[in-house]
């Protein structure tokens, strides 16, 4: 394995070096960097041209310029752009912004995409599967910039207008309830009667919920409150235990339930701490949650059930924590919305300039700015994960060992989670790694549409001015990500599938 | 399409002769009809409803784009020209009406300007059709170039192994390492103003890596087959083995990835044109139209909808065709419902 990694690393370094040569040579050929200077009046022209020529080394052959750039980069210096600004500083800001933009969207797209793909494979050829397939194809064919501009123009403006008087029309309630009901009904396995029951109850529950929320003006001043938190945490405990071990064994279920209970009590006890916490406090609380819920699972699980109780308990703990976090965030919504003039969903940039607020309010500020780009990115990238997961799951589900598992009487849950999911997700890990590599380069479009000054602006600056330095800085990050993640994908694949590494 | 004995029989057993009520025939192993590989593929493709719908939609878009304003010297049936300005009628709103009269609408009619007019009174239907023509042309050229380059590189790398493979695959890795938008964008700026065909060819030269990798993988396994061994033992030249014996057996994978490359090319071209790195005036394309009228979105939203709708229609239909082809060429694909 070590030999494999070393060989792969060696190849990657050479490949990346070669690609920097290609990009550098292309970047020096796009445009005359002196074009603007040539337009200047007589006196200033020569001085300006001489200055730029000196700064960019235009008198040297391209190969010399490349080698100079390479030597500088090896010492961590990305050089100066045409105006003499340090590229390092620009890259740092741009990279932070891009990272902020793509992290949430990527995680969401991967999680939702895989989950939808798994469900769609488990219900192959049902109406649900066909709907998912069709929607995935549509998303796959959407031009990102078009969707982004539309979301900006309509969703954001309409949503902000709607918040001024947040009541939902009966038609809208009916439509949403019907969609939720149909989804629930098609998820249920069983005869027509049980499906109709699921459809009916889900539709009714959704309609009542929306009607109540609308009537009480919840959307203007949202929040969950202790009762909803408790109920959600309880549901989380049951759900995660079902996934991890099934409900028939007592210890994992007890561990998850106790963790949920502790979470609800903690949410009440920690109120003063959570009023305006530091980021570090929140991270610390999350770590504490993992530790406590892990311990609960460890002790309640005993020798026999430890392997099921610990993950069930930790997942429940983190879920309860996330619910509490969301609740605090939602409670600050009314204040935040007032402070930005009732328009919380923003269409331009990464943050409201000079915004000061509590931890929750500045969190909401970021969320309001991230909402639209994230939605656009998720819509467009969701589809490939769904399709691949579905295909990969179906492939595994037809294997003999899955049939054997069913034949020897394993529960459907055990077959799906332990046999199908584990093997079906191996190809997905590599797909995810490849995709993460390309995402930095692909975020350029989103940044352009939503007016983020991030990695894309380096690229456009370089192209506009015929200046290779910002372009190379962009490429070092975007191309570097591709090379590194391709390497990770190969190594992970070799690690998960011994047939590759031994051949 | 080569017809070799073992795959022919195996596949006809995999594929039940008809879709409905075939359970009995399959379980008894009877009613096995001998079909050539081509027939099998065609049957499976035609049973794929999504692919058929995609085929029809794609055909309609192509026919509409080509016949409406004509191509080159040949005139089309639409009487307006994409570049002629004129007076703006009714704020330039679309006059297309598809709501039949008996439902309270204005009846089904095209009107003077079915897709509306832009701010200087150009007919937007003609403009969109011109954009669709260019986008389709670029996508097809990209598909052809990428498939040709990818297939040749993949086949050579897979067949010769050794240093040829190492060199070719490293070149592929280098191209992969550069983000497509960056590579194609830089080249797009360099060849700006030299016409869309040249731009399309270079875009194709940026998008062949996927095909090369797939073809290489296929060739790597096919070259170990007995029939290749046999061809080699009677002294067949390498070129003949590659092009006559190996590549025809990878045709499924090549066609599928060519289709998906075309769908990707439509989106990449429009994205590049949107970023001002692709098609430039006086040429136009669907992506270019969206950029040009982006600021008019709140006043004349139809200038924004129509090109977007056509991009989606083209990409979606080609993706569906590709999916159908993938299923049709996949021998494991049986699609028997239980």
Automatic annotation (TrEMBL), chain A:
UniProt keyword Cell membrane, yes or no: yes
Membrane-related topology note: Multi-pass membrane protein
Protein name, entry field: ABC transporter permease subunit
Membrane-spanning intervals of the chain: 9-30, 101-122, 134-155, 167-189, 196-218, 224-243, 255-274, 280-301, 308-326, 370-388, 425-445, 471-496
Pfam families listed in its UniProt record: BPD_transp_1, BPD_transp_1_N
Record keywords: Cell membrane, Membrane, Transmembrane, Transmembrane helix, Transport
Family, similarity comment: Belongs to the binding-protein-dependent transport system permease family.
Keyword Transcription regulation attached: no
ABC transmembrane type-1 domain location: 95-493
Subcellular location, record wording: Cell membrane
GO biological process: transmembrane transport
Protein species of origin: Streptomyces sedi
InterPro entries: BPD_transp_1_N, MetI-like, MetI-like_sf
A cellular component term, taken from the record's GO annotations: plasma membrane
TrEMBL record, chain B:
Transmembrane segments: 52-74, 134-159, 171-190, 246-267, 303-322
GO BP terms, alphabetized: transmembrane transport
ABC transmembrane type-1 domain boundaries: 132-322
Superkingdom to which the source organism belongs: Bacteria
Protein's cellular compartments: Cell membrane
CDD domains in UniProt: TM_PBP2
Membrane topology of this protein: Multi-pass membrane protein
UniProt-annotated stretches for the region Disordered: 1-25
UniProt keywords, alphabetically: Cell membrane, Membrane, Transmembrane, Transmembrane helix, Transport
GO CC aspect terms: plasma membrane
Biased composition range(s): Polar residues: 1-15
Similarity field: Belongs to the binding-protein-dependent transport system permease family.
Protein name: ABC transporter permease
